[in-house]
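User: Here's a chain of 294 residues. Predict its fold as tokens.
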Amino acid sequence: MAQELSKQKPDSGSQAESLEGNKLPSSLTQVGIITKYELRNYFRSRRFFILLAITFLVTGLLTFILAYYGVSKISSPGASQALSFYGFWWGFVPTLVVVFCSVFFGGDAIAGEFQNKTGYFLVGNPIRRSSIYVGKWIASLIASLIIMGIYTAITVGNGLYYLGSTIPIQFAEAIGFSIIYLIAALGFTFLFSSVFKSGAYSIVVTFILLLFGFTLIDSIVSAFTSIEPWFSVTYAAEIITNVFTVPYPTHSTTFRGAPTGFTPTIPEGLAIMLVYFIFTSILGLVLFERKEFN
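Assistant: Prediction complete.
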């Protein structure tokens, strides 16, 4: 990758041409090169195949449960079998698929450049740091979407086998919400990857916060202060599973006149996740731009 990026170096000319007469690669070209090589690294690494194995293990276990107990055993009272089926399968996406993908592919994407000293040689080439950041983020998103696509294909395959072509519209909505949550989670992960110079620290902190930390904070804030945890991305992600409940749950639950539990509305959940993505992505890029490689 470094050789491909270093083929062209700008001079003082208005067209930024190199001594060989070649133009400096545009930002879009630089992003494409970074994305290509980062994806190649993923597909050659163990982490992609480990996550793929985890996906097959989870879907295999769910398939066995359905084959053994039948669809009727997982059906919720008052809900159709299709809603119960797809809600059962997709309930693992926010906590397993999205979190594991963001941590596996984005946890050390930036921190690894500092830890392994590879960034010192990379930034010496005529390439913008923003191109490095965006290219790595896009590669992480593509790799994550591949894993999510496999999980979705197995879900639909089981659904077609047990229920035929009955696929509720809520399933399509849940897929869209999951992709938005994945984008927000990757932005959050890249922020911490830019904060730390150790990939291990970045991975552990992000994993704990997304899987346990935010959920615990949400429960404590809701129960003891009666304040809606609108500041939490995992709270916003509840719309992924709530969409399978018909009618959609009420915004708040009260006990003795005081709110004790909250459920994000769909517009609110989408807004929170998009704000998380924009804020964390920009902040992560700013931190990466200002850090020095030693």
